[in-house]
Amino acid sequence: MLAQGASPADGVARPRPPVRSALRNHALVRTVLALFTVTIAEWALWIGTLVYAHARGGASAAGFVSIALVVPAACIAPLAGRQADGPRPIRLLAIVYGSQTLFLIVAAVAAHQHAALAVVVVPVAASTTLVTFIPPTCSVAIPSLVTIPEQLTAANLLVGYVNNAATLVGPLLAAALLAVGGAAMVLGGCVVLVAVSTLCCIPLAELDPPFDAALREPSIADPLHRVSLVAVKRLAERPGALALLGVLGGQYVLIGGLDLLVVVLATEQLHLGASGPGLLSATFGVGALAGGGLSTLLVGRRRLAPLIAASLSAIVVALAVLGGETVLVAALVLLPVMGIGRSVLDVTGNMLLQRAAPQDALASVFAALEVLVLAGMAIGSLVVQILIAVADVRAALLGLSCALGLLLLLTVRRLRHIDDIADAPVVVIRLLRSTRIFARLPPAEMEGVARAGCVEHRAAGATIIRTGDVGDKYYVIADGTVNVIVGGRLVAELRRFQGFGEIALISDLPRTATVVAVTDVDLFAIARAPFLAVLRWC
Question: How far is it between the farthest Cα atoms of the chain?
Fold first, then answer.
């Protein structure tokens, strides 16, 4: 994800991200909507499943289930990165959402029939395992759908908004459905939500960029166990990047522990009734939503790493204070504080990681992050289980505070370097990787070309190049349609991912065709010198 506006490297500098421009991109809106509904379902699903487990076997059963839901996902996460870095990211999203829908139908029917715990948990675990495909696939799909670099900033803020809103809407929905029909009703609601995500994505599959198997990067064909490991090794070459990855994954110690804590705290400590876990979790969501709004104001700052450290510090302090006073008033105040801190950390951290990661292995880096996310959730859940069993809820809260405090101490110095290297022109790189002429470029050369060019906008009817003019640029279409005219005759109609203007540059001749914008078009323009410099790689 990116900081506010696009960097000068992206060819655009604006004071605020153009959210309106992103909202006019209907494919992007459908993708974000699908992410919103599936994320709401994910939050509600965890609460509904843990409540079902708690009703069947108490806190120990709920704790066991919270571990069982993350272990398979951690094992499959490298595959997620490998597939998301492949040729059809949007189609992959549609398949994932559709498969989740089927698994959740099985779980909902089983819960409605009051089946044994394992009969419900197994399909739920299958669904949560598929969740590991979503973040790395979105990290590739969204930059492929936006048309100009600054739209990516707006898109990432929208993703942050929906993720934070889901932390509120999901628990509230779970609370309402628990009060009406119990855990089975929650699972049924999740079926509807994920089905909506599936329907949003299916029509978008045709928008996947064109792909030639002969141009497939060797990294995609690497053995499964090496994909994320290689990506992490390459990330380690960038100062501060591994510390950022560790913080983004380690923060999920809070989420893993909090999922179980709110169930135990609401039912056994505060006696809030059947809907209590959902309502208590929703207070965290209120903070997360507020943190999303705060992130919008903060992402324009030149350095974001201090915000990450400050956010993690706020979470550590809030956990410690709540551990000292586990009463309802304290929970209602401090859980939102944790939500704010976690939201700001997540939005700014993911923006930095998207720009700091090797762009040809972006999904693999996010798949590695998913492994850390799941490991963090498992550690958080395990710490809470042990401390509740040995002591009480207060000890569990203090244990989480200590774990995250240790993470802060280990990473805070290294994080200072991340702002200096998080400047990759993500959108342009994704565009160039989808074009035939640049697809073979090695990562360093690809980034060099992306930095050398600039984004240009032309209105419908404008003449972009004219027969006989001196050839000074090569153009790649980011959005819109153009006509190629030779001798007064239309010879071609070009769209997104296609380019024009190379003949005059390569042959050092005047332009041989006239190109006119049929619609408003956004173009990535590359000057003659850098274009010719990379031809040896193409």
Answer: 85
Look at residue 283 and tell me if it is in a domain.
yes
DSSP characters for 276-320? Answer: HHHHHHHHHHHHHHHHHHHHHHHTTSS--HHHHHHHHHHHHHHHH
Q: What is the residue type of 374? A: L
What mean pLDDT value characterizes the chain?
81
Do 152 and 47 sit in the same domain of this protein? yes
Identify the CATH number of the domain in which residue 35 sits.
Answer: 1.20.1250.20
CA trace torsion 317, 319, 325, 328 (10° rounding): 120
Return the CATH number at 499: 2.60.120.10
Same domain, 145 and 215: yes
- 46 in the same domain as 115: yes
Per the domain annotation, does 82 fall within a domain? yes
Q: Is the pLDDT of residue 215 over 80?
A: no
Dump pLDDT digits (tens) for 75-123.
Answer: 777 666 666 666 678 888 999 999 999 999 999 999 999 999 999 999 9
What pLDDT, on the 0 to 100 scale, is given for residue 6? Answer: 34
pTM over 0.70: no
Strands (E), 459-528: 463-465, 473-479, 482-486, 489-494, 499-500, 514-517, 521-527
Degrees (nearest 5) of the Cα angle 135, 141, 145? 140
Check: CB of residue 72 under 8 Å from CB of residue 189.
no
Q: What is the DSSP letter of 435?
A: S
The Cα–Cα gap between 201 and 192 comes to 15
Residue 218: domain span: 23-421
Pairing of strands 489-494, 473-479: unpaired
Query: Which of 387, 421, 455 is at the close of a domain?
Result: 421
pLDDT, tens digit, 9 for 90 and up, residues 126-136: 999 898 888 88
Amino acid occupying residue 519:
T
**How many residues comprise the chain?**
538
Q: Which residues contact residue 254 at a Cβ distance below 8 angstroms, ignoring those fewer than 6 apart?
A: 315, 319, 338, 342, 380, 400, 404
What is the rounded average pLDDT of the residues 478-495? Answer: 91
Domain boundary among 360, 388, 421: 421
Q: How far apart are CA 338 and CA 344, in angstroms?
A: 10
What pLDDT does residue 99 have?
95
- For the chain, what is the domain count? 2
Query: What is the DSSP code (8-state) at residue 210?
Result: P
* Cα–Cα distance for residue pair 521/204, rounded to 1 Å: 21
**Residue 216 clears pLDDT 50, i.e. is over it:** no
